[in-house]
Amino acid sequence: METTFTLATPPRKIPLLVKSKIFFGGLLNQIGWAVFLFGILICWAFSVDGVFKSMYYFSGTLDHAEGLVVKVSESSASEGDVEVMQMDYLFESAGREYNGRSYFTGEFYEVGAKVDVEFSFTNPEYSRISGLRYSLFGAGILFILIFPLIGFLIILAGILRARKTIFLLKNGKPALGTLIKKGISNITVNEVPLERLTFEFTTETMKRIKITEDTANPQKLEDEAQERLLYNPENPQHAKLIDSLPGDAVLNSSGKFERDKDANLLMNIVVLVIPVVTLYVVYTWLF
User: Fold this and answer.
1) Looking at the domain assignment, is residue 71 inside a domain?
2) Smallest Cα–Cα separation from 135: which of 107, 106, 102?
3) Residues 175 and 281 in one domain
4) Cis-peptide, bond into residue 11, ω within 30° of zero
5) CA 141 to chain CA mean position, Å
6) Are residues 186 and 237 in the same domain?
7) Domain carrying residue 102
8) Which of 136, 168, 192 is the last residue of a domain?
9) Which residues fall within 8 angstroms of residue 146, CB to CB, at 6 or more apart?
10) Max CA pair span of the chain
11) What is the three-class DSSP state of 145?
12) Has residue 8 been placed in a domain?
């Protein structure tokens, strides 16, 4: 099929700054990382990792030893109106002294009391007083995992969408689209609805395909009789107009993609802030 614009032979190289903004930029991607970060901080605050450690280290056969309570105090948490208490203790295993902390509500041992301590045979540092719990909260607190899970699913959707876009830039086929319909979309930005433009193009196999584009700047997509676009030959419905490519990608005169020289470099840094902070928090929490 003849086109009126030049396109380099695939696979085309995509600049790193363009890729990073496609993967991490955009409102939905930023929301996903923000929700995931919020969820991780909530899980950290409620010691969700302690619940998983308890499930792992106390699931098999446990060793027992006599322990000595050295401190009983209030924790920073409560269940309903009941304070969660913490009990510090000492015990010995294989000639080595270990310390531990268990959490509970209700009756408790006095300082100096002898208690039965159960612990992992291979990892005595993971221990608890029999009948008490290793984690600050019980397994019921795991419901808060819904927050990072929602964020993770949004991030995952963004990654899959970005991979499709990168594939399109690298391997997409060129075509010319004709504007056949204009309307108002149900998406608003700052309480202003976006315009929805519908374009039709013909693939190299002579299939007629319609695609829609929601935009706040329709003039940019109406300045030519036919708009240049890229489509996935395996799935022609996945197509993007050259004049509305994400990631500040522009097509130069030699048919290669480059980063728009007028794009703000600071924005490439800004979109990385929340993902980098999130990964740092996750690493610090878990390791």
Assistant:
1) yes
2) 102
3) yes
4) yes
5) 21
6) yes
7) 56-136
8) 136
9) 39
10) 88
11) helix
12) no
**Which residues contact residue 198 at a Cβ distance below 8 angstroms, ignoring those fewer than 6 apart?**
179, 180, 181, 182, 183, 210, 211, 212, 213
Closest CA to 83 of 92, 74, 73: 74
Helix (H, G, I), strand (E, B) or coil at 111: coil
Model pTM? Answer: 0.83
Tens digits of pLDDT across the chain (287 residues): 455 688 999 999 999 999 999 999 988 999 999 999 999 999 999 999 999 999 999 988 899 999 999 999 999 888 888 999 999 999 999 999 999 999 999 878 899 999 999 998 889 999 999 999 999 999 999 999 999 999 999 999 999 999 999 999 999 999 999 999 999 988 888 888 999 999 999 999 999 999 999 998 888 898 888 999 999 999 999 999 999 999 999 999 999 999 999 999 999 999 999 999 999 999 998 88
Contacts of 58 (CB under 8 A, 6+ apart): 118, 120, 126, 128, 134
Looking at the structure, do residues 91 and 170 belong to the same domain, yes or no?
Answer: no
Six-digit token pair at 57? 């280290």
Answer yes or no: do 275 and 197 share one domain.
Answer: yes
Helix, strand, coil percent values for the chain (each to nearest 5) = 35, 35, 30
103 inside domain: yes
Q: Is residue 45 part of a domain?
A: no
Residues in the chain: 287
Phi then psi for residue 50, to 5 deg, are -65, -35
Q: Are residues 277 and 192 in the same domain?
A: yes
**Are residues 165 and 268 both part of a single domain?**
yes
Structural domains in the chain (count)? 2
Residue 272, classified by CB atoms within 10 Å of its CB into exposed (0-12), middle (13-18) or buried (19+), is middle
| Phi-psi domain of 145 (left: phi exceeds 0; alpha: psi -120 through 50; beta: other) | alpha
